[in-house]
Amino acid sequence: MAKSNSWRQFKAILRKDLVMELRTKEMVTSMGLYALLTMVVYQIALAEAGDSFDVRLVMPGLIWVAFIFMSMLGLNRSFVHEKDQGCIDALLLSPVDRPVIFFAKFAGNLLFLLVVEVLSLPVFSFLFLQGREGFGNPIWMIGVVLFGASVGISGVGTLLATMTVNTKGKDVMLAVLFVPLMYPLLRAAVGATFAAVIGGPGTVETFWLFMAWVAGFDVIMVLVAYGLYEFVIGV
Amino acid sequence: MKRNPLAEIMLGLGGLLTTAAFFMAFFWAPGTVYPDGRIDFAQKIFYFHVPVAEASFLVFIFTAYYGIKFLMTRKRIYDTKARIATEVTLFFVLLTMATGILWTRVEWGVWWLWEPRLTTYFILTLLVIAYFVLRNSVEDEEKRAVYASAFGILAFIDAPISFFITRWLNSIHPVVFAGGEGSGLETSMLITFIVAQVGMLMLGYAFYQLRLREEELTERLEALKIEIGD
Amino acid sequence: MMDLYAAVIPQAPYIIGAYGLIWVGLLGFVFMVFNRIGRLEKELRVLEESVERRVKS
Amino acid sequence: MGDTPTNDLAVQVRGLTRAFGVRKALNDVSFELPRGAFLSIFGPNGAGKTTLARVLTTLLNPSSGTATILGFDVVTEAVELRHRIGLISHNPLLYPDLTAEENLLFFAEMYALDNPKERVSELLADVELDHRRLDVVGTFSRGMLQRLSIARALLHKPDVLFLDEPYSGLDPHAMDILDGLIAQIRGDHTFVMISHDLDKGLELCSHALILAAGKVVLFESRDQIDVPTFRETYRATVGSGVA
Asked: What is this model's ipTM?
């Protein structure tokens, strides 16, 4: 019985976050806008690079820079809702296992992040990659990286955002904690994206090697985040 | 008043050993000779740069260890211990960075290079600094302790991951003790290094104990003030 | 011997700088901590004495 | 649900201490409260009222000492206990972007109620908000929010209700409504209320407790209380600025 209750509670929290997001469209619009703004900034950054410069060389890095900062925007929002009216207390007062809250929030954040990523990636290619050679490897490989890295980002991000929502200067705080912790994941994600974009002999192997890193990071860090969550949310 | 004689002995001994290592480095251990016959004087940094770096890693273990202990018991002393361990880590990290940058300038001709070892150490530095930024931004004492412990544990697990991922992407940073042909040191160099390393670890222990004593005093003072205030 | 100087002279400032930094850093740390411990002990003594006096009176 | 037989006491607190380092938010707090009682907890800011409430509602663990509610230990039997307690705070604890019905249904799922839809409709009718059930809570007035938050607290039919300064920020009309609702459910619930308002607290209570610097200064049942002395004690604790 306890098991099915947890599943009900998980669904309820996730559904609540989805309904709230569909109604306000707060996270997705702010994240999406942020992605568009980053592209403008990238245009400025690349303005003097000239036509001979192959944008594909820096594209993997650029998209992950956009995504990591975008994700922090969403992660911050996701706990401001809970904190605003003290709803988190009502939630904690109910007989729900703390890990259920972690996984529900994690799933919601992952979903929102993936939606914005999938929406902004075509725009990015449309704006920067027209007239260039296309992707060197099948496009689904990009999807694999997006999913793999987003799992790690939302998993660790959910734990950190739960903490930083209670700190002074929460947005800056999240960045200070989040970016260095994410270094190995981002490094591997950029490597894998690069292999997927450039293509050519050997890149498929490189891609999977980097994906193994991503997967390893996901497993270790999400498990640790899950283990620490109960302590962090209880104070 | 509880003094810690061991800490003071360690401090004296550590100071003695590191000073001895300093003289051994310059007057006893031979310099590395380049193939073209020039002498690599800059290599002398090795005797301090590496011990400080290793000490920083070792002390950081205690951040995570006491972090876990704190979360299990909720006793404030463990949080204090974790915080002091991180403080000593930060101190060693900054020394490692400073000496490392100087060495890089001599040996590679640039102050900084995004080279795997340097990159990961830079990440570690950021994580340690972030630990203190986090502490400063939490008002409530217990919350601060819980968050700092959680972040200390995460950072401790993250550091080796970043280390290995960059390592896998090939490093030009010298690896002295990798084993295999041509690795390792001449005996006199090895002894000098070991003396410096042991001395540095003793200093690390002494620093930690001294800071802990300072914290204990502060806490007693606080308790006394509360008592008198009644 | 000239070889030795040729190597040492350009590199020396950095080496001296590095050792200087370590020395200043380590000594500074020890000095600061001892300084603060001394001050705290003094403060503690003052407080303890005042507590004793209160108990007596 | 594991229905362990419960004793006659609603709340039993023994030597409850909550400390971090040298600071003690709660210092050796002990008291007992029979079922059906209404306890008002008074005390200056920083006296530990909120900490006490958070320990009793299983949100914080005590450093030492024990507390049981309806015979359930707040630490070891927290999950069973959460099914039996409710909280009405000065914060509504409702999601402003959800409708009244969605809010209640969400919490009904959290408590894994059997017929969530029926229970929610029933409660919305009770607090006279059924006509606004499809409106987003963010548009509600303070009084309506408070009514809805009472409905939220009663969803799972708790036996013990915690009130955290429920009257603060309410207009007189909303106060009357809250009075009425409390009177209505008073018979078969035990109440623990934190209050700054001495008059209101004394008017409602069957027991009163004054907390200062984490310690119990006074714990008496209503018929033992001599109002003028009580006021004096209260004023002394607040005035001495024990923090």
From this structure: 0.90
